[in-house]
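Bug #77: duplicate submission created two jobs. Keeping one. Sequence:
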Amino acid sequence: MEIRKTPLTIGAAIAAAVLILVGGAYVVGHIGGWLESGLDAASTDANAQESNLRIVEPTYATSVTLNDKQLASVEVGAVTDHEFPLQKTAVGSIDFNEDMTVQVFTTYQGKIISLFAKVGDEVKKGQTLFTIDSPDLLAAEANLIAAAGVLDLTTRALERFKVLYETRAVAEVVLEQAISDQMTADGALKTARDAVRIFGKTEAEIDQSVAGRKADPTLIVPSPITGRVTARNGQPGLFVQPGSPPAVYSVADINTMWMLANVAESDVPAFHVGQAIKVSLLAYPGKVFEGRIWSMDAMVDPNTHRMLMRSAIDDSDHQLRSGMFATFVIRTGDPVRSLAVPADGLVREGDGTYTVWVTNDRRKFTQRVVQIGMQNEGFRQILGGLQPGELVATEGAVFLSNMVLIGQGGS
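Kept job's structure:
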């Protein structure tokens, strides 16, 4: 079939195409206008929101104004001078004075019979710590009794020979031999008494042993010093020997205690033996113990760069205990006077700086950064940021800072 394109058909097609193009342009133009109006509206809203954000941006207050009720939480005082001693501090622990600590061994071997002191007991010099059954003492006392018997025998024999010699019943040489035997026996008895006395027996005890012809092998071991028992390693029935560790008892003189402190290498030149120190302990808040530097190590620890220093602390009341944590302060120069504020008037900020609250009318307070130095008796040295006579919050500084943080401050 043949299709013919008549002029009418072609003309209609052209008219339809023009209509579509015109209509499409209209529609596209309308859509474009709608999009443009929408973007303009969105831009206007964003600008408005940005404007609103700028308006509510927070500001950090540097001053606060208090009402009458709030003023009750703050105390105000003038900035004045305060004396600050030049001193060094270090921490350490209490220990027994090693120069006045003794280990108590038995002087002769034997088996422990009884112990008379516990760890922590305070003992006097000469007080019995323990007793042992000593075979050496038994042998010495047996020799003493035998020597006393020989002396008694030779003494009676001498008396008889003297009578016989007067009647010419014996020769002079026999009398002289009897005199020699009696003198030898007397010397042997004295030696035997000394041997028993070495074991700690008294003259009365020795006389009693000789008179009763009875040996007592109980050896008494007394405390060589007055002090506190710091260790006990013996038990009844234990066989002990002289100088064989561990010692049965350890006793320390507690009138003087040591404080062991590891001082920083940089502080070593400031210390010397004999310097007076003041010691504070957690166990006795507010109490200060006096003492002096006793000795210093010859070298600094290469790992910690610290040096061990020993200080002798007077403790006549026996309050200190070994192992207590202690802080010592030692004066290294003449004190200085400087501006100061109470420690409660300072606030440590998050960046490490310190601030105070300054006021002129005792109602409005302004925050100010200051530079601090030494601390003494509840005051901190002010190196910069304040002038003499200015009024600051001496108590309640943290309260003022908290008001700023919660937004109750002024401008």
